[in-house]
Structures are given as structure tokens and as C-alpha cells.
Write a structure and sequence with these properties.
Number of helices: 8
Largest sheet: 4 strands, mixed
Radius of gyration: 18 Å
Helix content: 40-55%
Strand content: 15-25%
Order of helices and strands: EEEHHEEHHHHEHH
């Protein structure tokens, strides 16, 4: 949906899924193909692969951005009924974030319970297991995002950090650019 290149050799690609009234995203939403196309994880993986190919020398980080929250009502594939919680929100907190941000090994005991879910992501992504591990280190699942206008004036958000006038001007310029591109 949107790409941002920075001077430090990084390119961030953003796929935005926004709901008028925020809800939940299930694990199934992430891995099941949509309307005869790719699943969301496959779309992210494909974008990551293409951006890396066309931007050699840059670190490519993909973002799935949504105002929705990860579900705490679904049950992930292969999870043990005697070892709750087994939902997507727990997977994100206990597996995805620690593995993708810290680079810890998937074979550590605390991650073993999530291996069937991890495998389902790999299978749905269209990447080899090795490629998927590299992709996952540079893939952010950004849930519960808010619009800048919805942030309270005392928020410590980076959007408010440089002063409201400069931030407002930057946000207005970005909004204008996005609307021109879409039109």
C-alpha cells in the first residue's frame, strides 16, 4: 500500500487493513487466501521478496498495519488443549514478537508449542522455511494502531513528539500525497 525509504538504507513497506469500527483479526484471516488470491501473510512475503529484489542493498521491513486486535477467541492449529491459551493473541505475544524481534531460536522449549502454527504460516507464505525465518525477522504485525487525530494531546506517540504544528503539517502533506496517488 505504501513504501517509505529512509536515508539509513532501510525501506519499509506498509500493507494497511483498516476497519471503520475496529474488530479482530484471526490466525485464519492471516493464512487463508482471499477471493482467489493470496493470503495476507503471502501478500506480505511476496511484497518483501519483490522489494528486496528491486532494492538490493537496502534492509526491507514489511508492516501489516491495522486498527484491529489479534483474536483471543480462535484456536491455532496443532495447539495442545491442555496448554492454554491457544489463540492468536497469545501466539503474537508469546511467539511472533519474541522470535521476530530477538532472533531467538524456534527450537527453544517455550516456542515448541507454537511450531504447528509457525509451520502453517510458512506453508501459507509461499516461502521456504529458511526464507520465511529471514522474512519474519523483518515483518511487523502492527495491531491496534490509531489515527493521529484520535491520539490525546498528552500522548507520547512519535506523531506528537515534534510539536503539534510541525506534526500536523507533516501529516497533512502525507495525507495529501496519499490521496493524490490514490486518485
Amino acid at each position: 500500500d505504501l513504501q517509505v525509504a529512509s536515508l539509513n538504507g532501510r525501506l519499509d513497506g506498509f500493507q494497511v487493513k483498516w476497519s471503520r469500527f475496529s474488530g479482530t483479526v484471526t490466525f485464519r484471516d492471516l493464512i487463508v487466501p482471499r477471493n482467489g488470491g493470496l493470503s495476507w501473510i503471502a501478500q506480505l512475503a511476496d511484497g518483501w521478496r519483490r522489494l528486496r529484489k528491486s532494492n538490493a542493498g537496502r534492509r526491507v521491513v514489511t508492516h501489516f498495519v491495522t486498527n484491529d486486535s489479534p483474536s483471543n477467541r480462535d484456536v491455532l492449529p496443532g495447539t495442545d488443549t491442555s496448554d492454554p491459551p491457544r489463540h492468536f493473541a497469545a501466539f503474537i505475544a508469546e511467539c511472533w514478537i519474541p522470535l521476530t524481534l530477538s532472533g531467538e531460536g524456534k527450537n527453544e522449549p517455550r516456542f515448541r508449542r507454537w511450531q504447528p502454527a509457525w509451520k502453517a504460516l510458512v506453508d501459507s507464505s509461499g516461502l521456504s522455511p529458511e526464507e520465511f525465518d529471514a522474512f519474519a525477522r523483518d515483518c511487523r504485525l502492527d495491531f491496534l494502531q490509531t489515527l493521529a487525530e484520535a491520539l490525546p494531546p498528552t500522548s507520547d506517540s512519535p506523531l506528537r513528539a515534534r510539536g503539534s504544528q510541525t506534526s500536523r503539517e507533516d501529516l497533512d502533506a502525507l495525507n495529501g500525497a496519499v490521496f493524490r496517488l490514490v486518485a
